């Protein structure tokens, strides 16, 4: 370990150089890279020159405060995204001090021994020291589409071209088949891949589709606001106001109308929401996936480990026409093999002995430092063998044919150390084992297989599957000589079945129920037997009854045309014994039917289906690096309930962006309506430039940000999925913005008129309207917490950040209005208590017509 640390310090992290990030200073200065802000700064400078120093300083301070707020938003978002990037970083398995350790790929150093298994993305350049049927896809490096067979025994001259270095494996390539060990010879930018990547530095990170759409909206709003502000300022000059006053006022109005914090709030909402997903064990690799999550209509999920606990335990063994029971739970090696309730000696039952022996040795799981490492199914078989007293160290593996999802079996050749005899051991699905078996064992007899005997085995397998057991078949052959690779899986002797159970996760039933309420269909796609899958599916509520009409096997799928299968997809929710190619076909057909599909996967062959799905979801524990690379989301706990939590979080993020838009644009538009209506009515200037900028600061700041992190609405997972083509500005949202803004104007304009006529003081009336706007913002903020539910149908005070921001708004408004010190700087005067009461009552009363109109709009517009 010490040597690894020393080499890490010498060679640095095993990662490619990244483009330089923006410094905090640049990030802060970028907040002012806005045409309107620049014009405002020029206007403040002109005010300073003509002697209006107080107004100029106040404007500059407000601009600075806005800049600080924007900087904090973006800085927090960047930090959150950087943390997520770290969480989604690839991992590698290395051998250090004789132990297999899973470490972040960036910590691999030259001299490490890298463990290579099917599905791994190789973390560094290695010289192979061991290879077993090792094939590697080197297309990303050499462009060669055919996987390269590797051979550790080869010794090649140094000048051998890159594509021909068959004793090497390179960073960025993928293990397709077999396994191997490699000595790390280069890391990071010193790898062959790193040398190429060095030429591609400086590529900017792509914005999400949502950010791009909102940037366009922001530009249009900016242009529109400038036009409105210019027209309004021209009216003011015609009415006798000075051109400098109107120039400042017009620019301030444009600044207030444009939601310049929109990109920052969107980024912050995405980043914070994604951070919340990470806390719920869903690591988002690509931000666009967050937007798609809210539109998900179908979740296609694996069974083992996702819907179930992934704690396989062998419970029953069928061998030699006898059904044995296995005691013990989980991965504990204490337990017994029972027949008719009594312990048995496995050595008196050769068929039972061979069934357990194959499960023990045809197995890549291992026990290391008291901890089992490997696939849960293989661990269960290893534990069963250890319970029976078998000793894996008595045998040496000399050859293997790795598991293949198309063959559905794995084979090894072992040599017994005591007598030197060879054993061929094969495990897999019943169909695949029957394909390569010519005989079967019954007690001490080896008998030729008959179709009747095979049919009997199918029936026994079905009976075990009815009990929700996952069934595997086992076969063997003794030989005096080492068989060739092509002879391994031939003329085998079938010896028995092992049935294991992986109980459903208790939280999944509730998650499936939540999916149904949210209009999301759950489809189970598994390699397990149909009856086992159906039993689990019924238990979890995926299907309503244990009827064969709800399940299809791979063989049945292959008999249907695409159109026929589309029809079947309307009824069938469980697909059993499928291969990755079937997954891909199902995804494509679902998408053709207009569904937004989330697909789970863990193997290298799942990558095409994960990429084809709208949202690819890889398993974080059992998933290969290839599956993780092809996915949009990684489940840190491999749990289906986490997928549903991620969908809920995705919906929440999109919901919150719309809440923010509803609040901000309703309020900003109402300012424009009041100011223009005041001009048209011939009233005095309703608000000064400083008033407008202050309102912009306190409303665009804390409350808008608080709505960006609002808790999920109570009805969130009871709504149907959002149509994927639906943008932010739906008809319902536009209608709500229009109604809310007009309502605010109708409430506040008469107040200004009355205050002006009763006091005959323009500054007093301006202060009343200024305060009215801030208090009205409080009401609008709470109304905006849902565009679907009325305020009395949920807890309006559930968002603590909104409560605190509202408190800040009110206290700061009281201070700047009632404190003489601020009056001269912000062009305000103290107003008596009765006006505070009137304005507060108006803000409270605003809730009633706003909520009634919300109900009407909800009925009129579905979206």
Would you write up a description of this structure?
Belongs to the cation transport ATPase (P-type) (TC 3.A.3) family. Type IIA subfamily. It comes from Thermodesulfatator autotrophicus. GO terms for molecular function: ATP binding; ATP hydrolysis activity; ATPase-coupled monoatomic cation transmembrane transporter activity; metal ion binding; metal ion transmembrane transporter activity; P-type ion transporter activity. The chain is 48% helix and 18% strand. It is α+β, with helices and mostly antiparallel strands and 863 residues long. It folds into 4 domains: 108-199, Calcium-transporting ATPase, cytoplasmic transduction domain A, CATH 2.70.150.10; 257-281 and 646-860, Calcium-transporting ATPase, transmembrane domain, CATH 1.20.1110.10; 293-308 and 504-638, Rossmann fold; 313-501, Calcium-transporting ATPase, cytoplasmic domain N (3-Layer(aba) Sandwich), CATH 3.40.1110.10. The strands form 4 sheets. Strands 10, 11, 12, 13, 16, 17, 18, 19, 20, 21 and 22 form an 11-stranded mixed β-sheet that branches. Strands 8-28-27-26-9-23-25-24 form an 8-stranded mixed β-sheet, with helices on both faces. Strands 1, 2, 3, 4, 5, 6 and 7 form a 7-stranded antiparallel β-sheet that branches. A hairpin with a 4-residue loop joins strand 16 and strand 17. The protein is elongated and about 115 Å long. The two termini are 59 Å apart.
What is the C-level CATH assignment of the largest domain? Answer: Mainly Alpha
Strand content: 15-25%
Q: Give the end-to-end Cα distance, rounded to a whole number of Å.
A: 59 Å
User: What radius of gyration results from the CA coordinates?
Assistant: 34 Å
Give the overall shape. elongated
Number of strands: 28
Number of domains: 4
Protein name: Cation-transporting P-type ATPase N-terminal domain-containing protein
Subcellular location: Cell membrane
Keywords: ATP-binding, Cell membrane, Membrane, Metal-binding, Nucleotide-binding, Translocase, Transmembrane, Transmembrane helix
Main location: membrane
